[in-house]
Write a structure and sequence with these properties.
By secondary structure, the chain is of the alpha/beta class. Helices cover about 40% and strands about 20% of the residues. Strands 2-3-4-5-6-7-8-9 form an eight-stranded parallel barrel, surrounded by eight helices. A three-stranded antiparallel β-sheet has the order 11-12-13. The structure holds 3-methyl-2-oxobutanoic acid and zinc ion (ZN).
C-alpha cells in the first residue's frame, strides 16, 4: 500500500543558517507563499527567539499561510517556547518545535547536564509547549550519536508529555544509510508509545549522505522528512527536498510513498531560493542543477533523440523545466508577461505587475530576447528588495587603456540622495570605493564572481559577492546587461543584507 510522507520544509530556518544566506522578512514571506504552493506540509518559518527579525518574519508567515502548518523552533526553555508561540499563534495550523541534545558529547560539553536533567527538561518543555497547542514536535539533537536506549527513553517521555512528532536528527551528518535505517527501526520498536507520534528524520549532508539517510529512514518507517530547497543549510546543508521527492516519485516500486508536492513547481522554487539567497546551485546538482538534464556525450545525445528514456530517468517537465522557454520581446504585452510569470511561480498583484512590466520594457529595449532568467532578476530586484536601506540611483564609470578608472555613484539612503566619486584599479573597484564612502561601511570583499545569466552576447551579467563586516557575512547578487552595473547592484545588495543582519543580531544559539 502506498503511504504518504509528510514534507517538513526548513529552508527558512536551517536553510537560512547557510553561511551568508540571510533573508529579510519580505523575501521569507515570498518564499513561504511559494512553499505553500509547492505543497509542503509544514514550513519551519524560523527560530523566533534568535532575533527580533526572525520573530517578525515567523509571525508574518504564520498570519499569511492558509493550508500549511507553520512551525517555530525553540530550545527547551520557557522563554524560547513563549517566543515561538508568540510568533506562530495566529497561524491556521501552528506547531511548536522544541529540541535538546541527547548525545553524551553534547550533554557533557555543551549543555553541562546529566541524562536525568536532559530528560526532565525535555518533558517540561514539551508539557509547556502543549499548554499552547496540541501540535508539538520534539527533536533529540545529535540523535545519531546518542545512546540508543537513552534516546528511546527521552522519546517515550516526550510522547507521554504530549509530543505528536518525534524527530531523529543526524545533526552532524555522521550516519551511514544502513546504520540510520537501523536507528529508525530501533526507535520504532523500543519506544513503547511510538504509535502516538509521527516519526520524523532530519539529516545533514556532511558526508554527502543526507538524502540516502533520509530514504533509508522512510524505508524503515519514518513518515516525516525534514528537508530544504536546493539542500541549503548549516555547513554542507540538509537533505534536499527535490532529491527526496523525485526519488520516491521515480522509484515507486522500491519506495511506495507519496507526497503532496507538485513536482512541476520544484524548479521555479529552486530558482526563487537561488535568487533570494544568492547561493548558486552547483551545475551538477541532482534535479535542479544546470546540467541535470543536459546531455553532452554524442552517444547520449543520439540515444535521447531516439528515446529520452535511454538516458533520462525523469522528464524535465515533471520538475518544472519547460522544454521550450518562452521568449518575450519588446512587443510582448502585459498579458503574456503575467502568464509567463505565473508559470514561473510568481503570482503578482496588479501594482507589482505594473512595476515589473515597466522594468521588462526597459530591459527589452536593451536586449532582444527576454527569457525566464531575466524575468526572475526583474522580479527579485524590483519586488523583493523594496525594503532596502541603500538603492542605486545613478552610476557613471569610465575605464580603458589610457584613463584612470573612475566612478560616480548616486545612492538613495533611506530616502536621502547622496552622490560621490571614487577611483580604483578598475571601474568596479572605483565604484565600490565610492559606495563604501557614501554608505560609511567598511566591509571586506571576500569573494567576487561573475558569469553570464544566459547565452548570447547580449546576455545579462550575473555577479555574486560575499561581504564581511564586523564578523557578519552576507551574500549579494546583481544582474544587468552592463557588468559594471551588475557588480554595483551585487555589492549594494550585499550591503543591504549586512544592514539587515546588523539590525537583527542573532542571539547566541548554542546547539544549532
Ligand atoms: O540539525 C539539527 O539537529 C537541528 C535540530 C534543531 C532539529 O537542526
Ligand atoms: Zn539541522
Amino acid at each position: 500500500m502506498t503511504e504518504r510522507v509528510m514534507i517538513f520544509d526548513t529552508t527558512l530556518r536551517d536553510g537560512e543558517q547557510s553561511p551568508g544566506a540571510s533573508m529579510n522578512t519580505a523575501e521569507k514571506l515570498r518564499l513561504a507563499v511559494q512553499l505553500e504552493k509547492l505543497g509542503v506540509d509544514v514550513i519551519e518559518a524560523g527560530f523566533p527567539a534568535a532575533s527580533p527579525g526572525d520573530f517578525e518574519a515567523v509571525s508574518e508567515i504564520a498570519g499569511k499561510m492558509e493550508r500549511v502548518e507553520v512551525a517555530g523552533l525553540a530550545r527547551t526553555s520557557k522563554q524560547d517556547i513563549d517566543r515561538a508561540w508568540g510568533a506562530i499563534q495566529h497561524a491556521a495550523k501552528p506547531r511548536i518545535h522544541t529540541f535538546i541534545a541527547t548525545s553524551d558529547l553534547h550533554m557533557h560539553y555543551k549543555l553541562n547536564m546529566t541524562k536525568d536533567e536532559v530528560l526532565t527538561t525535555a518533558v517540561e518543555a514539551v508539557k509547556y509547549a502543549c499548554s499552547f497547542t496540541d501540535n508539538v514536535e520534539f527533536s533529540a539533537e545529535d540523535a545519531s550519536r546518542s545512546d540508543r536506549d537513552f534516546l528511546c527513553k527521552v522519546f517515550e517521555a516526550a510522547i507521554a508529555a504530549g509530543a505528536t512528532t518525534i524527530n531523529i536528527p543526524d545533526t552532524v551528518g555522521y550516519a551511514i544509510p544502513e546504520e540510520f535505517s537501523d536507528l529508525t527501526k530501533y526507535v520504532m520498536t523500543h519506544t513503547p508509545n511510538i504509535g502516538n507520534a509521527v516519526v520524523s528524520v532530519h539529516c545533514h549532508n556532511d558526508l554527502g549522505l543526507a538524502t540516502a539517510n533520509t530514504i533509508a529512514a522512510v524505508s524503515a518507517g519514518a513518515r516525516q522528512v525534514e528537508v530544504t530547497i536546493n539542500g541549503i543549510g548549516e555547513r554542507a546543508g540538509n537533505t534536499s527536498l527535490e532529491e527526496f521527492v523525485m526519488a520516491i516519485h521515480t522509484r515507486p516500486n522500491y519506495l511506495p510513498l507519496t507526497s503532496n508536492i507538485n513536482t512541476e513547481l520544484i524548479y521555479p522554487t529552486s530558482r526563487l531560493v537561488t535568487m533570494i539567497t544568492g547561493i548558486i546551485v552547483q551545475p551538477n546538482k541532482a534535479i535542479v542543477g544546470a546540467n541535470a538534464f543536459a546531455h553532452e556525450a554524442g552517444i547520449h545525445q543520439d540515444g535521447v533523440l531516439k528515446n529520452p528514456m535511454t538516458y533520462e530517468i525523469m522528464k524535465p517537465e515533471n520538475v518544472g523545466l519547460s522544454a521550450s522557454k518562452l521568449v518575450l520581446g519588446k512587443h510582448s504585452g502585459r498579458h503574456a508577461l503575467r502568464s509567463r510569470l505565473k508559470e514561473l511561480g510568481y503570482d503578482l498583484s496588479d501594482e507589482e505587475l505594473k512595476l515589473v512590466f515597466k522594468k521588462f520594457k526597459e530591459l527589452a529595449d536593451k536586449k532582444k530576447h527576454v527569457v525566464d532568467e531575466d524575468l526572475e532578476v526583474i522580479v527579485t530586484e524590483g519586488i523583493l528588495r523594496t525594503t532596502d536601506t541603500f538603492r542605486l540611483e545613478y552610476l557613471h564609470a569610465t575605464c580603458g587603456t589610457t584613463v584612470i578608472p573612475m566612478a560616480t555613484v548616486k545612492l538613495n539612503i533611506n530616502g536621502r540622495l547622496v552622490q560621490g566619486a571614487g577611483y580604483g584599479n578598475g571601474p568596479i573597484d572605483a565604484a565600490y570605493d565610492s559606495i563604501a564612502k557614501l554608505t560609511g561601511t567598511g566591509s571586506e570583499l571576500l569573494r567576487f564572481s561573475i558569469s553570464a545569466l544566459t547565452s548570447g552576447t547580449d546576455a545579462q551579467g550575473e555577479v555574486t559577492v560575499r561581504l564581511k563586516e564586523n564578523g557578519l557575512i552576507a551574500l549579494g547578487r546583481g544582474a544587468d546587461p552592463d557588468i559594471i552595473t551588475a557588480s554595483v547592484k551585487a555589492y549594494i545588495n550585499g550591503l543591504n543584507r549586512l544592514e539587515y543582519l546588523k539590525a537583527n543580531p542573532v542571539e547566541a544559539m548554542e546547539g544549532l
